[in-house]
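pasting for ref
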Amino acid sequence: MKTQLLVLCTLLFSSGLYAQEIISSQGESYSNSSGSIDFTVGEPVIFTGTDGSNSITQGFHQTNWSVVDIIHHSPNFEASIYPNPTSELMHIKTSDFNNVHYTLYDSKGKLVIQNELAGALSAIQIAKLAPGKYSLTLYRQKELLKTFKLIKTQ
């Protein structure tokens, strides 16, 4: 009986250690003397309340944020990567691929992959990389074009 109770208590305690996580492109936290508010874009709405003049929607509060981002060094250069987050293969899509190179850095700034785009749609195999946050930079000669923040999952 004591063993079963100990196992049950251990399971209940350990299940509370894992918090929800969201991967979001935007979000913010604000606070002042009246209160505070946290939000993320793309959060599922579970309740909408109103007092007739003000409305509020509520979703799941996310304690861990993984922000993906794009830095446009050259606004006229169009490119996209997908999927993000990804686990095995990442695609770079651009119509202006001539003489465009890419570098992939891990979260510590270590160069892990470097190559030239092969065409309008180039695939990068990342299955052997460790899970974490990475930075992919597209450039032509010494001109930075775009930097993508991406997440490698299991």
